[in-house]
Amino acid sequence: MADKTLLFPLRTPDIIPVMDTPQTSRSTTKLDVEPFLELSQRYPVIDVRTPAEFAKGHIPGAINIPLFSNEERAVIGTTYKQVGQTEAMLLGLEITGPKMRSLIEQIQAVAAEGTLLFQCWRGGMRSESVAWLAGLFGYRCYTLRRGYKGFRNYVLQTFDRPNRLLVLGGKTGSGKTEILQALKQRGEQVIDLEGLAHHKGSAFGALGEAAQPSSQQFENELAMQWRQLDPQRPVWVEDESRQIGKLSIPLALWQQMQAAKTLFIEVPVELRNCYLVEEYGHFPMSALLNAVERLEKRLGYQNAHLVVEALQANDLTTCCDILLRHYYDKSYVRSLSKRNSPIHHIELDSLDPDRNADKLLAFADTLSNVPPAISAK
After folding, report:
1. Distance, CA of 61 to CA of 95 (rounded, Å)
2. Within-domain flag for 54
3. How far apart are CA 302 and CA 325, in angstroms?
């Protein structure tokens, strides 16, 4: 439903606070996405959509101060469809009038400076009206042209922007995430896809992680990092399947990853086994058994049964050995064989992330050229 049906008229004498100094009212300026995001680095973004809309996806860092509750917006929408725009606007006025003081108090609680950024679904009357109200109290206000809908279009277009990717590959248990963290500490550009997805990308990947964000929010957070990268410098990402838990890597980014050079680290299986025992061994038995159950078809009944027996005997080393030999290593090698991009193998003899990060950087320096930026188009 269009925002124009959801707000009170801008001039309604019975609900506008009486101002002794009306000259303090500030005008509202509409901004496109880029300048809006630049200002958001300094000033708060207030999302006036409903809590349900906000939960589905929002500008990273935005604060939800809803003009209407989920139920109120639904009722107004029904009124708009069944009765008409005028009745819907009057109902919006009736609902909003008693909230105006609370709205301003919530705004004042987050406004450290005198400038505020507002957005709604389409950049229409919800954000404009709350910005107008804030302007009466002396705030300089900006609204997002085309609102969250325009921001989402911007997000999806962002992944068409090429960057110079280096993909860090390696079999399960090679410590790739820790290496990426060490690279980041050295000033390298790193995108941690698993960190953003709150998932390690396997049947065990949700253990110890917060709930995964919505698909929109994953893309929003990823796009805000992607847009800030220097296209002239390499960007390190971990090799992933396109699916990370319930989330999918945006197609344009996935295509860039598939075309990029892969630095594949070769770590002895004994070290990888020890890593996995330490990484997952402290989780409850029930959680580990549930993860194995999800792999039963791929492991085969007999191997899955052996893994369960090893778990129940607290023999985590045998458990990891079966999982690596009969599923994870085979699956990764099969996936790697389908890659047409260059793959460089690097032998490592430890799981020390700092030492391994240094080796990777030294190897990357020997490449004739850093991978060129490849557009998904």
Report:
1. 28
2. yes
3. 14
Ranges of beta strands (E only) in the chain are: 28-31, 45-47, 63-64, 115-119, 140-144, 164-170, 189-191, 234-238, 243-244, 247-248, 261-266, 343-347
- CA nearest 176: which of 194, 203, 199, 154? 194
Structure tokens at 80: 């708009």
pLDDT digits (tens, 9 = 90+) for 231-281: 999 999 999 999 999 999 999 999 999 999 999 999 999 999 999 999 999
Q: What is the pTM of this model?
A: 0.89
The answer to whether the beta carbons of residues 148 and 58 sit under 8 Å apart is yes
CA distance 356 to 191: 18
**Angle at alpha carbon of residue 206, lines to 202 and 209, rounded to 5°:** 135
Same domain? For 208 and 143 the reply is: no
Q: Is residue 376 part of a domain?
A: no
Residues 150 and 179 grouped into a single domain: no
Catalytic residue positions?
120
Residue 323 has pLDDT above 50, yes or no: yes
Q: State the Cα–Cα distance between residues 46 and 50, nearest whole angstrom.
A: 12
Residue 283, CA distances (Å) to 173, 196, 295 in order = 16, 22, 17
Specify whether 143 is located in the same domain as 194.
no
Q: Which of 114, 132, 155 is the last residue of a domain?
A: 155
What is the DSSP secondary structure assignment for residue 69, as one 8-state letter? -
Of the pLDDT bands very low, low, confident and very high (cuts 50, 70, 90), residue 25 is low
Rounded-to-integer distance, Cα 174 and Cα 339, Å: 20
pLDDT score at 341:
87
Complete edge-to-edge strand list for the sheet that includes strand 115-119: 28-31, 140-144, 115-119, 45-47, 63-64
CATH, residue 275: 3.40.50
Diameter of the chain by CA atoms? 81
Instruction: Specify the number of domains making up the chain.
Output: 2
Residue 362: give the domain boundaries. 161-366
